[in-house]
Input
Amino acid sequence: MTLMKQFLGAAATLALCSGAALADPALVYDLGGKFDKSFNEAAYNGAQRWVQETGGSYKELEMQSEAQREQALRRLAESGSNPIVMTGFAFGDVLNTVAPDYPDTKFAIIDMVVDQPNVKSVVFTEEQGSYLVGMMAAMASKSGTVGFIGGMDIPLIRKFACGYVQGVKAANPDAKVIQNMTGTTPAAWNDPVKGAELTKAQISQGADVVYAAAGGTGIGVLQAAADEGILSIGVDSNQNHLHPGKVLTSMVKRVDNSVYEAFMAGTEMTLGLEVMDLAKEGVGYALDDNNAALVTDDMKAALDEATARIVSGEIKVHDYMTDNTCPVE
Amino acid sequence: MDFATLIQILDSTVRLGVPLLLACLAGLYSERAGIFDIGLEGKMLMSAFFSGAVAAVTGSVWLGLMAGVGGAMALAAVHGLASITFRGNQLISGVAVNFLASGFTVLIAQSWFQQGGRTPQLMGGGRFEPIHLPGAEALRDVPILGPIYHELISGHTILVYVAFAMVPLTWWALYRTRFGLRLRAVGENPAAVDTAGISVVRLRYTAVAITGFLTGLAGAYLATGLSAGFVKEMTAGRGFIALAALIFAKWKPLPALGATMLFGFLEAIANRYQNLDLGIITLPVQFMQALPYILTVVILAGFIGKAIPPRAGGEPYVKER
Output
């Protein structure tokens, strides 16, 4: 009998150990959806890179509505996933209530700061990346008018807009920037028809470079810009390949690197706040074969210089979210 | 606002208003026959998906259009079956159609194309190209009329002209044909129509099929005319705005044209000007975006005339108990 007990005990211990060792990481996508060719897709690519390199597996969930967030996090935490990575500022409030209930699970949130002992917050300095593409837009523009099209009207998107305008004004103080937001509801992330219409409205006002920070709506912006023969700027992922030769560049946000690193570290993930800025190559602009002909050496030189000066702190790009105002229009 | 700007805004109005117009006329047929349809949104979405998907695979926008119309009519048949044959609640059936389309399109798109619920970008023959009317280039420099003809009237896709042609056609069909008289009667008093020896069921199915056809055109216009492919939830509430326009237009075809173009105009203005400066006050863009709904509420509250829906609307017809 005692032998049996020992066996059972050993088996139970083994099962527990293997359970802990098998804790798969999990990734939760925001409403834009996994393949938005943008923000969430970057997260997906990071996770896929981890799969290819380690052969591991992970759980993923795609949000369909606001109401699912809390349930999704709790279910993943209870099923033993660790760490749990989520993309999007909208998880902030929910994570604040869920995280204390699962002290042994590590969470990582991208684009939001959540002050809990078991949470890693990753934020990007979008204003710096947007500043750089703003400079490029101003230098590529012949009319001196450039456009910005945001998705849902939230402070994060205003942060993109504000950095962009600062960059445009830095390269050409007389340039005019036309700004539009697609809407005030989450539907604004998935309305390519409206995105195209806003682009046409901006073109008719003289814009010849348009920067889209609008998730799925941006697909329509880039399409309309290519149709009408002007340049566009993609966002989050490298979108240069969508319309080769017609997308000036993309403001890339290396969400993939953050997800990859979080997955690599696994349960050993460091916690706390991590700011992914230009110096850490968390943001930047995309250069590849598709836009090589569009980016002149002058632009590259100017952008390299600006990059160096931002990294050294000589240029301070204002962050809209610190005071909810933008010094330039 | 100078003349050129006005033309551009009106041009944008046409593009934004046409999907609403098609959906609004679609709703008109159905509701005039006594079948409430809040599933316009879902049918448009279904059509947008099928037109985008088939156009992407075959490279032919016409095959895409046919597939889109087919998809929308299939959903219309579901709605008809539930609300006419099985006498279910029409609102619930409509809601079900919307949910079905919302989930189905993304699921099938993901399974066919693996692009995360969207269809591949359409190229060349996969999209409706703008039609340049004869003489548009030649007349371009004529003052006033030149820009109107060149910018505003010429240079739209075929579906736009079809949509505008549908307005007088609908008016004629409703008020000048035997079919129209019966259609209107079946929405007001189906028992009387039945007494006259005309099949209520068949009339209502016909109306619902026309609704499916027109929402099919609307969805195809979104996916293959205005943009280049299907994106999940790309109708973005246009089906509901079309319903609001239908109430605003009091279920009549000519006012439907006015209402949808007004809503399109409001959206075009909101797109063009972030904040509308009227001199005395500055209207924020959110107000402009909400205006169609505000106007509808005002109409329903009875401030601008009265909007009375077809009397038998929403009630399944029971021949005898």
